[in-house]
Fold this sequence. Notes:
Layout: H1 3-11, E1 12-15, H2 18-27, H3 32-39, H4 43-51, H5 58-71, E2 98-101
Antiparallel strand pairs: 1-2
Amino acid sequence: MSTEQNRRRRRATYVWKPEMIRALREHMDLTQRELADLLEVRQQTISEWETGLHTPHRSTQKTLSMVAERAGFPYLPQTAETPADGDGAQHNGEATAERVDAGGAGANSD
């Protein structure tokens, strides 16, 4: 991997959309409270993420990505350079997490 690829990879972050967070939680067969305990946040925070009221901080998005990978959650991270199909879904109907440059993470809440 080139130095430029390493830099781009470090700057990138996952953006978890509300439907993605809920899909991950349901995939893991967890309640909002159980996911909140796993991520060390309040249950209300999970609810706010799932309804789109707030989005997770970048550090929490990274943790969500690691949890998703360990749980075998089927998602396809997309880089800012890779065109997304706009609705956050893969062509096979699975949910996706978008991967964008760190500056484009949007509003954050913990």
